[in-house]
Amino acid sequence: MTKEIAFKVNGEQRTTKTDEDRPLLDVLREDFHLTGTKYGCGEGECGACTVLVNGSPTRSCITSVGEVAGEDVLTIEGLVSGDKLHSVQESFLRHEAMQCGYCVPGHIMTAIAFTRDNPRATRSDIVDAMSEHICRCCNYSSILSAVEEAVRGEQGGRE
């Protein structure tokens, strides 16, 4: 059923008229032209489509737009402040934690929530948290090192 659905995206109130069962991923990419969030598997298994809904990592390919009505959605595009990257993005760059880069936005969104919520995380905690993501071409150790550096930054009070 088509209806008007309103929610915040990257701090801005947005509205779309669509089927409330439509995947959030499709609305973000097709209606709002926010193409940083990627389609990977369409089943919520790979993590490429991860966004933050009210601060929690959420698979946008299996979350309907109706489920986020009135909520706050943050995509990879919403992380940049002026021309300054988020500290987690900077860590990923320093550690060259990407090859093709397709799945990196999902990794980063999960890492942001994880580092915020787990400022004393161990390497083992990081492995557990990031194991929910699948990357077909990357060196996982560089991703883990980037998240580990970001956790250390959270311990020091940096954003």
Would you give an account of this structure?
By secondary structure, the protein is an alpha+beta fold. The protein has two domains: 2-76, Ubiquitin-like (UB roll), CATH 3.10.20; 87-155, Orthogonal Bundle (DNA polymerase, domain 1), CATH 1.10.150. The chain contains five helices and five strands. The chain has helices at 24-31, 87-94, 104-117, 123-130, 140-155, and strands at residues 2-9, 12-19, 50-53, 56-59, 72-74. The protein has a five-stranded mixed β-sheet, sandwiched between helices. Strand 1 (2-9) and strand 2 form a beta hairpin. Helix 2 packs across helix 5 (140-155), helix 3 packs parallel to helix 5 (140-155) and helix 4 (123-130) crosses helix 5 (140-155). The longest helix is centred in the last third of the chain and has 16 residues, at 140-155. The protein is globular, with a radius of gyration of 15 Å. The model has no long low-confidence stretch (mean pLDDT 93).
